[in-house]
Amino acid sequence: MRSKKTKRLVILAFFTAIILVQNFVPLVGYIPLGPLDLTLIHITVIVAAFILGPLDGAIVGGIWGLITFIRAFVWPTSPLATIVFVNPLVAILPRVMIGVVAGEVFKLLKNKVRHQAIAMIPAAILGSLTNTILVLGQIYLFYQSKSQILYQIDTKALLPYLLTVIGTNGVPEAIAAAIIAPMISEPLLLRFQRKS
């Protein structure tokens, strides 16, 4: 029992280290594209959720969210981060929910399909889209009245703008997660299952 807890803590520490590297080494976790960034860090959270389960996926996501929140004050990743990610609901909650959604969907599907990797694909897509929709949805809710200041666009144009971001950022992020997360997670899960 103690060795299982130790193993879990070591793996959590490993994922935390990856999240830190992705946040602080340029172009490893974020690829800048104008006012927003194409994010790759969500893939680490999804892999953690597949390997350790939804709760630990949520913890890893929460660590990313906390870093996002702190960075908005000291070292923002984009011009909008100083305005949007200083709100903990926007910075932390969507990241936590990546782990919850990806982990729960994977748990639900893994016994219903022949190969675990097949269950990981929709789980990764839904986990990724959860982040995108929650971040952009909350931007719309909380910052709609400030859209002319933040985005230099008319308030009426904010929703089409955010829907465009879902297409240009959210969809590629979800596709990347659907391809990369199973490629990383399946061999790790097989290795851990053999050692158990």
Show the helix and strand layout:
Blueprint: H1 2-24, E1 30-33, E2 36-39, H2 41-52, H3 54-74, H4 81-84, H5 88-91, H6 93-109, H7 116-143, H8 147-151, H9 155-195
Antiparallel strand pairs: 1-2
Strand proportion, as a percent range, falls in under 5%
Shape: globular
What is the count of DSSP helices, taking H or I runs of 4+ residues? 9
Care to count the β-strands?
2
Structural class: mainly alpha
Q: What does the radius of gyration come to? A: 17 Å
End-to-end separation: 11 Å
**Helical residue percent?**
over 70%
The description of the largest β-sheet is: 2 strands, antiparallel
Residue stretches low in confidence (pLDDT < 50, at least 5 long) are: none
Please give the CATH architecture.
Orthogonal Bundle
The average pLDDT score comes to 87
User: Assembly state here?
Assistant: single chain
CATH topology: the name is Arp2/3 complex 21 kDa subunit ARPC3
The CATH class name reads Mainly Alpha
Order of helices and strands: HEEHHHHHHHH
Number of separate structural domains: 1
